[in-house]
Amino acid sequence: MVMLMRALHLALLMMLVSFAVNGAQAGGEAPDFQLKDIHGKVFRLSDFRGKVVLLEFFATSCGPCVPQMDELRGIRAAYSEEQLKIISISIDPQVDTDEVLGDLARNVSATWILARDTIDVRDEYGAGIAPTIYLIDQKGTIRYRSPGLTKTEALTPNIDELISEFRSQPASISNPDSGSLEIILLLAIAALVVVGIFALRRRKPSRK
What we know:
Elements: H1 2-18, E1 34-36, E2 42-44, E3 52-58, H2 65-78, E4 84-90, H3 98-108, E5 113-116, H4 121-125, E6 132-136, E7 142-147, H5 152-168, H6 178-203
């Protein structure tokens, strides 16, 4: 009976979300948000600019969501933290408490960020079903959206493409900071003053 009530609760939640606006789409800017993970640490999506982000919306009562976690575990092992950040957000925060999500993380060996959607981030993204996965590039643009269970072989080519795009971008020439410019300018002025004084002394006639 309890499982049936949870399933009905989730189905109702999905129906409500499906009536929301279309939300974020591939090619658009990923809406920023701030949440606490299951360990109480505050994070923002924008904290991870410069990295590819895999953002997943899920629920523990969702049938395909546990197999999706298994897929994400393989992806986590394939990429470094510097290349890819993974964030899994439960869209059922009333049922999926921090303790419930902590148990899930231990059971599936999830070493990435898990959090509860306490501010309706799913509405911003239009995540109508669970799981739904978004790939966000280093500049914060949504590049890929996949509702439903998504296999590793469908995700890795897209992740590889985003990582390679970033690597192929020409490196910007770093400019000296203002402090370094001031030091260089002062040294140049000092050198000119010394040269000027030396020149004046050589031109000054000697007195007998």
